[in-house]
């Protein structure tokens, strides 16, 4: 059990602490063990190597040039049917619930799988059905879905994702995301898709990967992304002082910070102590939310992210509880869910 002895306080049980997870990519959240189980089920019909060889247990350092190809060259070949997608999704949900997550916004890029005769719409439906099935058995964790537009997408592909988000809004999709390799530029071509989402479905939340790498942290790109009207932004690493002030001035913006991902992928300097969580967590007027990003790859569950900030930034029990509650107002899952979360997170 993840526990930390806080000298001025009782030990904090970070797993028992009810938590909100708002930035988790489905394919990156699948544990190595689950990938291995899926691989075993596909024997002898697969030529893919064992996931435990591709991602040896204990290896959590992946630089970004090795990280992004992992999905297109490996994971997507393994998760290649309704049954493997559903198996992987339910396993991801079980893992988050077992780690004390009470509200999850899972995000995924809709993917057509022609070999299984699956359209992007079938993909989204399969994930949503798996969530419904899971919630029949687990009443404590509620899960909503965010659909991701990949930076590599063409405008028609992005528009298709927006149309799917609108179509499935009443069935559990609550938002849109912009994700993908930050080295891919030219994303102004995607702006009309996000403008269309805002016009057609103002109730859809918007979260954007923001200044994740130096190459995606130019003033022009960040100005443009803020202009798309996100309620939350992810990573927020390469921001100038002026941009920092702009973010604070907007008031109530959610900052999805992912410590282990950033450290293990070499996206920040100075290890955990040098992470910009230290600059943000006491700032009023923004909501810092700890998130895992890709727990299957980087190996640090959300409970451990809380343990890490306690260890490296000296947060005490009251700070940890305040941090866990801070994201409630930024969820995309609606007012009723906020009320439920306030009850759970204030009663502990
Ligand atoms: P999926 O969308 O469920 O298939 O999850 C995998 C996808 O998430 C990858 O192909 C990336 O586009 C995206 N992703 C995962 N981690 C990151 C990240 O740290 N930055 C940007 N995109 C990411
Ligand atoms: Zn991410």
From TrEMBL:
<dbReference type="GO" id="GO:0046872">
    <property type="term" value="F:metal ion binding"/>
</dbReference>
<dbReference type="GO" id="GO:0004000">
    <property type="term" value="F:adenosine deaminase activity"/>
</dbReference>
<protein>
    <submittedName>
        <fullName>Adenosine deaminase protein</fullName>
    </submittedName>
</protein>
<keyword id="KW-0862">Zinc</keyword>
<keyword id="KW-0546">Nucleotide metabolism</keyword>
<dbReference type="InterPro" id="IPR006330">
    <property type="entry name" value="Ado/ade_deaminase"/>
</dbReference>
<keyword id="KW-0479">Metal-binding</keyword>
<dbReference type="Pfam" id="PF00962">
    <property type="entry name" value="A_deaminase"/>
</dbReference>
<dbReference type="GO" id="GO:0009117">
    <property type="term" value="P:nucleotide metabolic process"/>
</dbReference>
<keyword id="KW-0378">Hydrolase</keyword>
<dbReference type="InterPro" id="IPR001365">
    <property type="entry name" value="A_deaminase_dom"/>
</dbReference>
<feature type="domain" description="Adenosine deaminase">
    <location>
        <begin position="18"/>
        <end position="343"/>
    </location>
</feature>
<dbReference type="InterPro" id="IPR032466">
    <property type="entry name" value="Metal_Hydrolase"/>
</dbReference>
<dbReference type="GO" id="GO:0046103">
    <property type="term" value="P:inosine biosynthetic process"/>
</dbReference>
<comment type="similarity">
    <text>Belongs to the metallo-dependent hydrolases superfamily. Adenosine and AMP deaminases family.</text>
</comment>
<dbReference type="GO" id="GO:0006154">
    <property type="term" value="P:adenosine catabolic process"/>
</dbReference>
């Amino acid at each position: 059990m993840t526990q930390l002895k806080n000298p001025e306080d009782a030990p904090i049980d970070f797993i028992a602490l009810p938590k909100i997870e708002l930035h988790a990519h489905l394919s990156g959240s699948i544990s190595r063990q689950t990938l291995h189980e899926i691989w075993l089920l596909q024997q002898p019909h697969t030529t893919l190597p064992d996931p435990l060889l591709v991602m040896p247990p204990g290896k959590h350092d992946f630089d970004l040039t090795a990280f992004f190809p992992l999905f297109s060259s490996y994971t997507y070949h393994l998760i290649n049917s309704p049954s493997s997608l559903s198996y992987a999704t339910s396993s991801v949900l079980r893992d988050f619930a077992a780690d004390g997550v009470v509200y999850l916004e899972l995000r995924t890029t809709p993917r057509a799988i022609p070999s299984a005769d699956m359209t992007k719409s079938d993909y989204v439906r399969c994930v949503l059905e798996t969530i419904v099935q899971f919630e029949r058995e687990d009443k404590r964790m509620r899960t909503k879905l965010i659909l991701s537009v990949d930076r590599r997408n063409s405008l028609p592909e992005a528009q298709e994702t927006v149309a799917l988000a609108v179509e499935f809004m009443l069935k559990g999709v609550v938002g849109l995301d912009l994700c993908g390799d930050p080295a891919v530029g030219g994303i102004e071509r995607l702006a009309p898709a996000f403008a269309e989402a805002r016009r057609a479905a103002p109730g859809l939340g918007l979260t954007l990967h923001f200044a994740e790498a130096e190459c995606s942290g130019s003033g022009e790109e960040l100005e443009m992304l803020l202009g798309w009207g996100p309620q939350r932004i992810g990573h927020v690493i390469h921001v100038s002082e002026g941009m920092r002030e702009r973010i604070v001035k907007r008031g109530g913006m959610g900052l999805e910070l992912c410590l282990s991902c950033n450290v293990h992928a070499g996206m920040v300097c100075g290890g955990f102590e040098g992470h910009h969580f230290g600059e943000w967590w006491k700032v009023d007027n923004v909501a810092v939310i700890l998130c895992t990003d890709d727990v299957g790859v980087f190996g640090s569950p959300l409970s451990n992210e809380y343990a890490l900030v306690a260890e490296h930034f000296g947060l005490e029990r009251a700070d940890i509880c305040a941090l866990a509650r801070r994201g409630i107002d930024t969820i995309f899952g609606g007012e009723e869910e906020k009320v439920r979360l306030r009850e759970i997170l204030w009663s502990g």
